[in-house]
Protein 1
Amino acid sequence: MRTLPLLLAPLAALAADRPNVLLILADDLGARDLGCFGSKYYETPNLDRLAARGVRLTNAYSASPLCSPTRSSIMTGQHPARTGITAPACHLTKVELEKRLVVGPDRVHVSNSVTRLKPGYFTLAESLKAAGYATAHFGKWHLGHNQDPKEAYEPKDQGFDFDWPHTPRAPGPGGGYLAPWNKFITDPEIKDEPGRHIDERMADEAGKFIRASKGKPFFVNFWLFSVHSPWNARTDYIEHFKQKTDPSSAQKNPLYAAMVRSMDDAVGRLLKHLDESGEAENTIIVFWSDNGGYAYPPKQTDPVGYADIPATSNLPYRSGKASLYDGGTREPGIVVWPGKVKAGTTADFLIQSTDLYPTLIRVAGAERKAEQKLDGFDQSEALQGGASPRQRVFCHFPHGNAARDSVMDGFYAGSYVRQGDLKLIRFYARADDGSDELELYDLAKDPGERNNLARERPAEAAELNDLIQLYLADTQAVVPRFNPESGKAKAAQAAPKKKAAAPDDLPGGWKNRAGAASVKDGALSVQSKGAESFLGVGAGLAAGSAKFTFRIRAPQAGEGKVTLLNGAGSAETLAVPYKVTGDSTWETVTLELPVQEKAGILRLYLPTGSAAVEFDDIVLTPAKGEPRRWTF
């Protein structure tokens, strides 16, 4: 761990400083989506400069893999498991204020999320307002809206003096980022500016508030709409990124890159207003994201043509938004605190979105109500180079199912704990018999969470599972459970003993035409029998441009191929080669398949030179229709 130097005055004197607070929250921005966090494709000069003014937090986490729960954690300092806001459901019409289990016909009973941030919480904004701060919210809220005058769920009900553009019900910028904005902004006083980006306009409105607050400390809650869907962006930016796209790179969607660029423009505009106000040196700036990046193909894009390219990649972290793997909750955290945090540094202590509330009220000299439980930790000393009080990170996500998990890897009801470098995920009732499944990973050696150590290190898995159990009890979490009355469960119980699979049958309908094959630690290991060793599966591809992606680990460099056939026993209609470097590390191979005629069979030939290889995360994307995904 690189330790930051301890700077300046004792913490007891911090309240007298009364710094302004600027909290910038991106929507769906991945941990690797900024230049300062490793992206070689996206261009984020303003956020890179911001990071150079402060500290980059390399172990920053959101409280949930989806947005509303994390937003509630920032406003309350509490785990979503405690508040009951566990899904992005706060735009729904029905008011649900109590967390509960949904008992239905599905195989796993999951939670019914609370749909409003209840007025009884003493929010971060209310705490700062009580301490004399001028408070304003800009952008997305998604923590509840009022359907009659007696309700109190919107920003102005939760401690904010000002709210612009007042879209408490909108989960995203419906209709698009570029004006006209009339599909999600209803205020008749807000005039459209054709072609202008909403986050850019929002930055100007925040600049006006900052200037108007001169002489009084301010709290600006700047919650960007970017880079959440809808998938649209400036065409000139898209064309710019098309010219620099490397098809072999994991990040390669020009439209998403253009969205990231516009987000960075808006942040730069906001920071320019702050600098020109003369308040920059007395302002603590926090940059965060509400969950991981959208690492899947967008459903629709404007302009068209980018829907089959995953919006982003969070590699080396596994999966993305909605997943309990690190791609779902790992965030690009930045804190600028002039005179307190040394510029241009990094820190690797654990920090979570629940920590922002206690940290910021401590810095501002504000207080919380004694009766309100805080799950977060005050990280003000750690930000200055002292010790962090946080030893572990928890996440509880009581939603998802096998169908969603097949598309968004890890989108399944579960909980996790990270302690040190070890992370344990408990997936509820995922085993065939309805029991929970445990996955244990050493993130220092395996940041991609591919090598499940739960069976290899059972004592550590049990210890961490006990911590999850204590966490669930403390937060009074709604815990998903197996439904023994579900159709699938009944069929499994009533069916005779399962007939042994043929030796060449593999999970997901694949046929083995190679050597011995087995599934271990979530990967398919296949022995090679020579140049004609392959795995086959029904393709069902119509003519058009398809795509085939898979992860492979091979001990030797070599070349393989993917072929298409009309049907069983037919001749090849297409053969596309691929290569592996062969250094026993996971590689992602992406192949374009220009299908000329209907293809019934796909064959994946093992690369030459390796006696055995491993496969994982295989995705076949047809020209039209939904992708098919195989994980093992």
Note: The two ends are 34 Å apart (CA to CA).
Protein 2
Amino acid sequence: MKAFRSLALILALAAPAYAEEPFHYEIKEGLNLNEFLREGKVSAHLLLRSGHEPRFLTAFPAGNSGAGLWFEPVEGDPQWVVNQAPQAVMLRDGAGRPLYGITVDASLKTPVLAPKQAVLSSVRFLRDYQGKAPIPNEILVSPSHQDNRLVWSRDRLDGAAGYRLTVEVTGGTLGADGKILAGPDGTIRLKFTAASGETPLTPLSGAALLKDNAAADPAARNALTFLSYREKFLAGSWRFDTYFGRDTLMSMRLLLPVLAPEAAEAGLGSVLSRLDEAGEVAHEEGIGEYALVKGGIAKPLNDYTMIDGNYMLPAVAAAYLLDDAQGQLRAADFLAKDGNGAALVRNLGFVLQAAEPFAAHPGWRNLVRFKPGKLVGQWRDSEEGNGRGVYPYDVNAVFVPAALDAAARLFDSRLLDPYLNEGQRAAFAKAGRTAAVWRAQAPDLFDVSVPQSEAQKAVTHYAASEGISPVPVTEKSVRFHALSLDEQGHKVPVVNSDEAFAFLFADPAPAELERALDAMMRPFPLGLMTDAGLVVADPVFAEPAVQARFSRNAYHGTVIWSWQQAVLASGLDRQLKRANLPAPLRAKLTAAKQSLWRVIEANRSYSNSELWTWKPEQGRIVATAFGANAGDADESNAAQLWSTVFLAVKPNE
């Protein structure tokens, strides 16, 4: 292990490429105190976890790296206090290489703190450790005890500049056994310094990020700024400080009205540059030490498990290149740059080939399914998120036909002519006809209808199990689209927010539009609407075992995801712009929009979070942070890319 030359902290010097105004902001969410700092070459997210299981963690977008220290459980419910805001620092390791990071002064009122485990590596390994998954032994390092400090430091596994974490006891005492004892006032005061040697990213901010018409929402602007870089957008922090294809695409689709062209092209270009040879969209990028451990070399490892991004890309590309005024002007140049045009054609070719079997023989067996052996493949990417189904509704009923429509439009625009051969031209010429088959045939395969008496019985029983009031079923039958189909083509009867994708990406017939609207806007537990927001899943009509897996502690259970509400809000705006809707349906859409915005505004404090959950309280459903309860499957990100989309999705439009 190489020694460090000095403990002096030197402010990071900003090169011209990093010339932006420094910014810092704080978010308190449940048990987590989050501090975000971007200054010069330093970009860092500090998290202090209060309560029974204290934790310090810093995540760096540079290399998706981080340093975390978990402490043994303590008595009571002590709360971290930040005594001095985090500061950007630069250290040098024994080889003189720079490490960029932060230092922060914090205190906790507890008699003793005993370090349990430090993890200095890729955020993915910190994420695994937090989730109680095994992590590689070779990344672990023991601390050195230096007077009143504990120091963990090491090079990256390939010998490159690595990681450092220092805990200096400034209030209390550090015992020989590594335990930290409180001072006479019962408080422990610590100075944490964490740094990484991974290559800093190039910030994207200001006028290069947002147009003047973006909403004046400081919290959303801060989150988007922290997550935006010229190399890529980050999916969310602290747990996903790297590229995610689906997150980038969906965020771009919703943010497009307010994104500066440089930002739109950075996002779209990052997706196109990571396509595989077949044209599939990369889901998550594995970089830094994660790539070293999993792949043996420091070369990015892209995960292509997810399938939804493959079909989002054409629709988002068309939205920018064909529908956005600045995108139209810049389209030819963008496609000619960095192989973007050829990459887009490769993706469109993949989409056309994947859609052909169903177009020739419509039936559930020819739908697009998750990859063999996988129960994940779209945004509900926890193992139980699709109810163990493998043919997802959103991909098949919405994204595939939307991708085919986009392929037809891009082909007709002649923008792709320089990148097409004769065989591709013939295939692309059929895209519109193929889309028509998918639009007409695929959604009906997911149709669920529950008779009134059966529905009322299910609602009454489920409401009692959740400690909430039942709601009356007034319709002869309750209809909605199944969340997915299982291996045998059976429908997974979970009411779901994915119906909203059709509002944003398609133009359903009035009867279909009304049915989907009713499914989402009915009060929970008959539908999805609650005082805490729009839940993303409602298993009221499913078997008890399925209901148990879709609890309000489950990552994709009866919880609220901010961006899913934005999808519906934006989709409602889009549908209200149609001229061919009957007046009663238009009135119903307008009323739904008003109801949705009421709950969005009532829960604004959570809007930039990844997700939140709820609890029953005196007959009401009350929002609460996800991850604050012992039973929660995980904790949410305090900054989430697709939760910043309310910068573009506004109630007055």
Note: Residues 216-441 form one domain.
